[in-house]
Write a structure and sequence with these properties.
By secondary structure, this protein is mainly α. It has a single domain, classed as [2Fe-2S]-binding domain (DNA polymerase, domain 1). The protein is built from four helices and two strands. β1 and β2 form a beta hairpin. Bound molecules: FE2/S2 (inorganic) cluster (FES). The site of FE2/S2 (inorganic) cluster has 11 residues, from loops.
């Protein structure tokens, strides 16, 4: 499959190209377009892959440095949580507002379904 390859230590690596299926964008990719989550696009693959990882962490109940109650069985995904979990990726164009809106939409539609 395009975008997915076998690599280091027999682990699968999924790139942003590998997220779409049957020529349809992944909901997070579509949300980035909908919310202008990019300008030049240089950081976008990393932003999207980080967001996918962040959503997976959320689904697995992993807290972040700003999680208010890490002993709670479930926690809310606040904007503060999104910003903290996405903080490792810098965007030179400053498209952070659109990026956060896209991630919020993906969380609201994907994770909570
Ligand atoms: S969109 Fe240009 S660096 Fe992020």
């Amino acid at each position: 499959m395009y975008g997915i390859c076998r690599s280091i230590r027999r682990r699968d690596i999924t790139t942003t190209e590998g997220l779409s299926e049957n020529d349809e964008l992944h909901p997070l990719q579509a949300a980035f377009i909908e919310h202008d989550g990019f300008q030049c696009g240089y950081c976008t693959p990393g932003q999207i892959c980080s967001a996918i990882g962040m959503i997976t962490e959320f689904q697995n109940g992993l807290p972040s440095a700003v999680t208010k109650d890490i002993s709670a069985a479930a926690f809310e995904f606040s904007n503060e949580e999104i910003k903290e979990r996405m903080s490792g990726n810098l965007c030179r164009c400053g498209a952070y507002v659109g990026i956060c809106e896209a991630v919020r939409e993906a969380l609201d539609t994907e994770v909570r379904e």
